[in-house]
Amino acid sequence: MSDGIRGLKKKLRSIHSLQSLIKTIKILSAMRISSYQQAVEATTRYSESIELGMMACLRSAPWIQEAIRREEVAVKTMGVIIFGTDQGMVGSFNDQICDYMRGQLASTQAKTIVWAVGQRLHWTVSHIPQVTVRNSLQVPTSVTAIAHLISQILEAIDSEGESLDRLQIFYNAPGMGASYTPTSCNLLPLDVNWLDSMVEKKWPTNQLPEVIGDVEEALTALIREFLFLSIFRACAASLASENASRLALMQVAEKRIDEMMESVTLQYHKNRQALVDEELFSRAVY
User: How far apart are CA 211 and CA 114, in angstroms?
Assistant: First the structure.
């Protein structure tokens, strides 16, 4: 009986250690979710500035918008950026975004070049027969590391030998609570309806904008900043979703650990009471 109690004590200590570990992971995940969400929110004002700059360029050179409209061609080569994770305890995070991308690309006849963020996701995507997968990119572990990753992505796209007719991005976006949803968006070519709505917007001040220097060069630089910002937001959203997935799993694990703790504690008290009763009975007999 005493051996059983010692075993239960050891088990209780292990459960306590697991509880502490799960609580630590939950706290870290919640903090990271908050930091990534704040990073996305912090880009809002910068995004507005970029749109104002693009609006000024398009208004001062309306022929550019017409040229963009005329450049709509059949998509022969498409670039895809997809975000995953190399961390554990996230469930089917990589599989869900990969399956979503596979479904979205199932009907395309274009040559598809994929840049996968995450070695595990790279391995999964490489088994899709209709895509060409480039070297994998490392998943950033902090907000400050996102900018370096995006610079690598843009350099990889620039160094691609053939031009891309379309650039699309796939990532898991945070949902309600600790959930996430596979999401995609087209980065290039620019949506003509979006450009039309931008030109029709009212300028926020009475001072009319003026573009200094070459308009096309300015617009090209702004479009590159727009791409940078769009990929930044997608990456931050993916990282927030990753931690949300981990937080959800830890909440389930915490509930199970609490149930286990209650069961083992009850068994420990029963065995201990039985041992006390046995000792009292032995003393009464002798």
Answer: 36
Q: Are residues 68 and 191 both part of a single domain? A: yes
Do 58 and 71 belong together in one domain?
Answer: yes
The Cα 190–Cα 142 span in angstroms is: 29
Number of domains in the chain: 2
Q: How many residues comprise the chain?
A: 286
Do 154 and 216 sit in the same domain of this protein?
yes
pLDDT tens-digit profile of 90-149?
A: 888 999 999 999 999 988 888 899 999 999 999 999 988 889 999 889 999 899 999 999
150 and 213 both lie in a single domain: yes
Residue range of the domain that includes 163: 32-247
Task: Note the pTM of the prediction, 2 decimals.
Answer: 0.82
Q: For tokens 């239960």, what's the residue?
A: 8
